[in-house]
Design brief:
Helix content: 40-55%
Keywords: Plasmid
Strand content: 15-25%
InterPro entries: Initiator_Rep_WH1, WH-like_DNA-bd_sf, WH_DNA-bd_sf
Number of helices: 6
Domain Initiator Rep protein WH1: 17-116
Protein name: Replication initiation protein
Structural class: alpha+beta
Strand order of the largest sheet: 1-5-4
Family: Belongs to the initiator RepB protein family.
Shape: elongated
Distance between the termini: 35 Å
Length: 121
């Protein structure tokens, strides 16, 4: 029988995420936990740039992790995502070059409250 947490978060598990080659290449430097969080956040965006909230319960249910480990991974990723960047080639004002942007513009987490908010992926 499906428990209440699994029922509540089945929407996240059923979503597909499509990534560009540039995003896939940039994600190669991320840990498994960071990639999971990134995919969970992208699946929530529905093509619109907006702040995303991921709860530890949702993350734990989706990836079958103990709740404490889920919260630790969310907390640790919050610190790391601000220091890592995406690199891709493109054109700006008629000049070809390399773009580098941070994965996130800001992160908000509350100690021991079980959720993280990621802004502007």
């Amino acid at each position: 029988m499906v428990n209440e947490v699994e029922k509540k978060f089945v929407g996240l598990q059923s979503k597909n995420v499509v990534l560009s080659n540039a995003l896939v290449r940039s994600a190669q430097g991320l840990t498994l936990a960071e990639k999971r969080i990134l995919m969970a956040a992208i699946s929530r965006m529905d093509g619109v740039m907006k702040p995303i909230q991921i709860t530890a319960h949702e993350y734990a249910a989706t990836f079958q992790l103990p709740i404490r480990q889920a919260y630790e991974q969310l907390r640790d990723a919050a610190k790391v995502f601000l220091s890592k960047h995406i690199t891709y080639y493109g054109e700006y004002n008629g000049h070809k070059g390399v773009f580098q942007v941070n994965w996130l513009s800001s992160v908000f987490y509350t100690h021991n409250e079980g959720f993280m908010s990621y802004c502007q992926i």
